[in-house]
Amino acid sequence: MTNYQLKSYEEYQEAYQRSVEDPEGFWGEIADTFTWRKKWDRVLEWNFEEPNVKWFQGGKMNITENCLDRHLKTRGNKLALIWEPNDPKERFIRYTYRELHEKVCQFANVLKKNGAKKGDRICIYMPMIPELAIAVLACARIGAVHSVVFAGFSALSMADRINDAQCNMVLTSDGLNRGAKQIPVKRVVDEALENCPSVERVIVVERLGWAVNMVEGRDVWFHEEVKGVSKDCPAEEMDAEDMLFILYTSGSTGKPKGVVHTCGGYMVYAQYSFLNVFQYQESDIYWCTADIGWVTGHTYLLYGPLLSGATTLMFEGVPTYPDNGRFWQVCDKFGVTIFYTAPTAIRSLMAGDIDDVLSYSLDSLKVLGSVGEPINEEAWHWYHTHVGKERCPVVDTWWQTETGGIMISTIAGVTPMKPGHAALPLPGIQPILVDSEGNEITENGVEGYLCMKFPWPGMIRTTYGDHERARLSYFSTYKDLYFTGDGAKRDENGLYRIIGRVDDVINVSGHRFGTAEIEEAINHNEHVVESAVVGYPHDVKGQGIYAFVIIKDKPEKEEYLRAEIIETVVEKIGKIARPDKIQIVSGLPKTRSGKIMRRILRKVAEGDTSNLGDTSTLLDPDVVDEIKAGAL
Ligand code: PRX
């Protein structure tokens, strides 16, 4: 184990202080433990104005050499990946580091054989099958930039992302399993590609054995392409600041943006945060339940654990299939020691029968993690008591697609833990709270907007194809600060509690959507004149989607119209963005300048209409009474 794993609170404090006083020395020493083909010329160059952030410039490396090759000597026969299928009756798959290395090299050669090269953008739209993990690493191996699109997004969403990044290749599968359902993935790809002229090649992995449409000259089967292909593929040499991947995420305006992460800094931060937060040990069996389509899957299912030489478990299914005990059954089956999941999954399982948990021993568990949204205290205690048997620390990890890795979190058993609190920043992370003018609030026992005042290696570098957008989204709200979009409290002891987004972003089951993005989708429905979307507290999802919609003519049956509007959103974005409630209204509360007063709509959606504040500045104050009366 590398010696930068913090073992006590004192060590944490020392490391933290060092990281602030001498960030370059601090990160340089950590980076030194990785495999570089050439050492960097300079640890850090930065300003948050442009922004321009460069870590380990001039350093040459390949992240897959660090994830795979460097472990072969000492961990060649150790399990790298365990894959558990959706159906518990189907056999699981295991790859040692040596086998995974071969699989990745072979896939990389298939990519090359099909014309892929360094710098190309490759869209991966695949379910949680081993080939997804292998495909991601294969892209990194040859220096192609992966852009993974979660396989629950619609064809239109995929097409937008492919076009934005100008991908020339798509990696996909015939179909996918999700609980009792099977979904024709390739058909979605075909639909998307009707509008994606940049794509020249589609490689299809067989999962269900379905007959699918194969376009001559464009589509090939992976199992045919791989025949006779070498298992040896030297890694492409990358500069530390070359792009590693793009991952699209929603913001408060416009279409989702392509968050860009680069090779060197991301690598260093992924391993450092993984080793520390979870206090990973060589014999651990680590399971992160996130899909690789999200950043959590990138950093803490794939890169972080593999960089650390860990055994990482990948699960194809859902927590509720074939029953509510599935997570716990898998924990027992493989002796999982570190388990990392989302509050929404915990809340959905909490609602079920407690015997679904109690009938499994869960003796192997040592550390539990939570990610993606605030974890309410009830869920925290349930997780801690029934899953962790009060002996496993629960680490509430706060971070974002843009941060690349965990920023604020309890370090298991090392730094303080408090329900509902992410607690303290990791070494190297300098959070501050500011007021609405951007003035730093230095005391404890306060609330403010969460910003970062110093760069860290895993941070976003740009938004693909539009650097100005990155500047405007993250670096222009407060001068010389990275603005997270979150509000946070700092308690008397300096522990952080993340309250949630302060912009027009809704967090549904840990997934981000811009209200504008959902409104735009709803407005595509031919019956809709205008809409306004807000989030409201939802027992399982954290936040639900509440849409207020003005329609052209009164329909015969409102239910049909609602179903149609939902269908439009599913088509434009995907099932994950379905509105939970749709209220038909004749007007929206707007100011005289035409701005929708979402504050009022949020209150109505929350069911709290007792104090709507000042409504006198509204263009038509009467509309508020109607909205209140019709609230769902
Ligand atoms: O609002 C915060 C919330 O999720 C947002 C980031 O979403 P995304 O980029 O999709 O990444 C999710 C996985 C890292 C944040 O701005 N969030 C994430 N983790 C937490 C959280 N809110 C509270 N507590 C957390 N632990």
From TrEMBL:
Matches recorded under SUPFAM superfamilies: Acetyl-CoA synthetase-like (SSF56801)
Sequence similarity: Belongs to the ATP-dependent AMP-binding enzyme family.
PANTHER family, per the entry: ACETYL-COENZYME A SYNTHETASE (PTHR24095), ACETYL-COENZYME A SYNTHETASE 1 (PTHR24095:SF14)
Domain (Acetyl-coenzyme A synthetase N-terminal) ranges: 12-67
Enzyme superclass (EC): ligase
GO biological process, one term: acetyl-CoA biosynthetic process from acetate
Enzyme Commission (EC) number: 6.2.1.1
Official protein name in the record: Acetate--CoA ligase
Key words, A-Z: Acetylation, ATP-binding, Ligase, Nucleotide-binding
Segments forming domain AMP-dependent synthetase/ligase: 69-455
Highest taxon of source: Bacteria
Signal peptide: none
Residue ranges constituting the AMP-binding enzyme C-terminal domain according to the UniProt record: 517-595
GO MF entries: acetate-CoA ligase activity; AMP binding; ATP binding
